[in-house]
Amino acid sequence: MASFERPGMYVPYPARCNPQVDSARANVKAWAVEVGILPSRETPDAADVWDERKFDDMDFALFGALQYPDAPGPELDLLAEWHTWIFYYDDRFLRAYQHTGDLAGAREHIDALLRYMPSTPGEAPPSPGNPVEAGLADLWPRTISTMSPEWSARFAGLTGDMLEEPLREVANARVDVVPDPISYVQLRRKTGGALWTAILAEHAVGVELPHAVESSRALRVLKDTFADGIHLRNDIFSYEKEKLAGEKNGVMVVEEFLGCTPQRAADLVNELATSRMQQFENAALVELPLLFADLALPPDVCLDVLAYLQGLAAGMAGDFEWAKTTGRYNENGAAGESEPSTGDPATLARLGIIRRVAAVAPPPGTVLPDPEAEQVDLPDFHMPYTGGRNPHLDTAYSRVRDWAAEMGMLGSGVPEWDEAGFESANPVRYAALMFPEAPEDRFELAAKWMTAVYFLGDLMDVFERRRDLAGAKAMSDRLAKFVPVGRPGDLPSPIGPLERGIADLWPRIAPSMTVDWRRWFSASVTRACEGSLWKILNVVQRRVPDPVDHTEMRRGCGLEIVMALLFYAQGLSLPAGKTARELIRTLVESILDWRVLFNDIVSFSREVETEDGGINNGVQIMRRFLGGDVAQAIELANSLATAQLGNFERAVAAGLPEDRHQVRGVVDAFRTVIAAELEAHLLVVPSRYATGGTKVEPETAPWRMVPWPTGLGTSAARIGALAGAGGERA
User: Fold this and answer.
1) Where would one find coiled-coil regions in this protein (predicted)?
2) Which tens digit of pLDDT belongs to each residue from 471-507?
3) Angle at CA 7, nearest 5°, toward 6 and 9?
């Protein structure tokens, strides 16, 4: 008996089947025999992974025909063979390495495969020693022969990531912790293969996206939502199969994290898949035209991008159709389901980009719950760390205030930027919490940067209230020129207090820092501006953000700039090794994700009282998604925030390099930042976050800090068990 009734799914695009499907079936099977995936007289042992009956039942040729309905015959064969190969790689890896625990053999296998993707066409790979190597050795030259070196490098990178992911899954499986749903979506995106499919869609439609387009937010959203929608729906289809295999998927993650029934979990995963697909549509209809205008793309490039968009839409529909019928997920297929069309290529409108064809009525993204302006009870915040305070606060305060006045920030007309407002917000006090060990000269300069970050945020709020997306975009574009990665030479002539401030600060800090640090700092300024532009666009549209998009875009907040400043202020160094660098990036993302949720809880009452009703507030987003009350939404947001601290400590425990002293100081400083954020929000400058602006003393605070996780999903997230009370010092 099934664990739940499969929910009705949002299907905005009709599936179409490539008319060459029958010939593809014959050709793909012959290829599978040739490379040893299927047994033959010469390779009878190939049946250890798949026999012919299982191969036919899964029907990867149909998968390709539904994914690429307009591809000509030879192209369809190539693409279907790629998908056959990657599915085979996964199943063989599971049998040969994951079930046996042979991680050393798995590492050797992956390293060998990477040699079959040479960057130069015609370069001879090694002689293949197994079906996976034989398949890749055949597919790679056939694929890159018609593409540029730049595209080939992108494809090699994504294919390499795909090969690595099963190894990471094995490592993650050894940590018996239920991931939070948002983190799961992001992890699944890396492991599920749909991003890899998205780059093959370029090959299928015969276009290469220019770098400026491919690296833009609009295209990133289209590819990410394409992947997330496919993966989440596949998790619903494959629930029974993966449960029997003892594997985790999205439905099980939600079920365990929320402590709900399988039916409720499946319904929520389906709603999240719907939300991601609607985000795809919004990016296509709203963000893509803005990108075309911003880059002044010529018509032929715009048409190429639209052809690629149509390819993604067809792929989403095709994957859904295949998942309903394939023997990989269903023993008996889906009897009675309508057959996909094999008609002529559809226009964007017929594909549903303009006129939706929906299986279920989706919750509109423009609908907000009625705001509840009353003061809410704050939850028990999990805080295992303690902070400090810089002793140079008092001596630096007047100098930083005078600098802000000299730059023109005080008295600029930006709300609350006068003497009284500066004292109330007090960015210098905030800096004292963030940089407790900075020497006096570096602390003062870092506090001035903190003041500029505050001013940037408040200036963006002015643009948001005016719905002035164009003005905010123009300011953001100019601001990037004041933090060049190269050593600062002649900066543009500054206009306004913010540019004057950064033009004064950047030449004083950049020369003493490495190129890698300058690259990070410059990118963090860009991401902070992009995050603000995203918020303004939501307000202009009156659109409640998608939960995943909210998490990822709100990472672009001023805190990342502050974390980069931490390295300057306290004399820390970015580690040189790849493993250590990846660890630092993971830790930064966990802190940013925690901070967004924590900030949205604390500022909820203030934000819902605005005329926009807190559109960009995470608690409001949880209310819309769950359909519950404020208390339930706050509980979920707090549980997700707590989970991010769990992610932080698990990354520290699992990811520290052998040379631990290299990152010991960084990890301890990051823990101090987390504690400082909580103290700044609730004790030092609550006027920026909560209604009323009254400073709350610790003994009368309407909340408690607890050194252990509480709330949803925390029974399996015992941070203390991983790292001791307060986290084991690295």
Assistant:
1) none
2) 999 999 999 999 999 877 789 999 999 999 999 999 9
3) 115
Q: For residue 391, what are the CA distances in angstroms to 535, 638, 649? A: 36, 32, 29
Ranges of each domain in the chain: 21-325, 381-723
Question: Is residue 161 within 8 Å of residue 199, measured between CB atoms?
Answer: no
Q: Which CATH class is domain 381-723?
A: mainly alpha
How confident is the model over 201-214, as pLDDT tens digits?
Answer: 999 999 999 999 99
d(CA 618, CA 601): 8
Nearest to 583 by CA among 664, 675, 672: 664
The pLDDT confidence band at residue 690, using thresholds 50, 70 and 90, is low
CA end-to-end span of the chain:
49
Task: Dig out the tokens for 143 from the structure.
Answer: 């694929």
**Residues 6 or more apart whose Cβ sits within 8 Å of residue 240:** 2, 3
- Among the residues of 117-238, which ranges form H helices? 131-144, 149-173, 181-191, 194-205, 211-214, 217-237
What's the confidence (pLDDT) of residue 370? Answer: 57
Q: How far apart are CA 432 and CA 436, in angstroms?
A: 6
pLDDT at 118: 87
Instruction: Look at residue 33 in the predicted model and tell me its pLDDT.
Output: 95
Is 675 in contact with 383 (CB distance < 8 Å)? yes
Q: What is the DSSP letter of 206?
A: T
Nearest-angstrom CA–CA distance, 248 and 648: 21
Please check whether residue 464 is in contact with residue 607, taking contact to mean a CB–CB distance below 8 angstroms: no
User: Could you give the CA distance from residue 228 to residue 192 in angstroms, rounded to a whole number?
Assistant: 9
Q: Which residues of 169-178 are buried (b: 16+ CB within 10 A; e: fewer)?
A: bbebeeeebb
Which residue in 635, 631, 681 sits closest to 372, CA to CA? 631
**Predicted pLDDT at 416:** 87
The identity of residue 10, as a single letter, is Y
Q: How many residues does the chain have?
A: 730
CA distance 272 to 40: 44
State the DSSP H helix or E strand holding residue 381, giving kind and residue range, or none if neither: strand 381-382
19-59 pLDDT per residue, tens: 999 999 999 999 999 999 998 766 666 568 899 999 999 99
Angle at CA of residue 454, ends 448 and 456, nearest 5°: 105
Integer CA distances (angstroms), 586 to 373, 582, 589, 645, in order: 36, 6, 5, 12
Rg (CA), the chain: 27
For the chain, the average pLDDT equals: 85
Which amino acid appears at position 425 of this protein? A
Decide if 21-325 and 381-723 have a common fold: yes
Task: Please tell me the distance from the alpha carbon of residue 470 to that of residue 203, in angstroms, as a whole number.
Answer: 35
Within its chain, how far is the Cα of 460 from the centroid? Answer: 23
d(CA 29, CA 290): 45
Residue 302: C-alpha distances to residues 6, 220, 299, 416, 536 (Å): 39, 16, 5, 44, 25
Burial of 120 (0-12, 13-18, 19+ CB in 10 A): exposed
Check residue 694 and give its pLDDT: 33
- Of residues 12 and 173, which shows the higher confidence score? 12
DSSP 702: S
CATH of 21-325, one of 1.10.10.10, 1.10.600.10, 3.10.150.10, 3.40.50.1980: 1.10.600.10
Phi, psi of 354 (to 5 degrees): -95, -50
d(CA 71, CA 63): 13
Q: Are strands 705-706 and 381-382 parallel, antiparallel or unpaired?
A: parallel
What residue type is 311 in one-letter code?
G
Residues 6+ apart with CB under 8 A from 494: 482, 500, 502, 503
Q: Say how far apart CA 11 and CA 317 lie, in whole Å.
A: 7
Read off the tokens for 51: 């026999």
Retrieve residue 173's tokens.
Answer: 């499986």
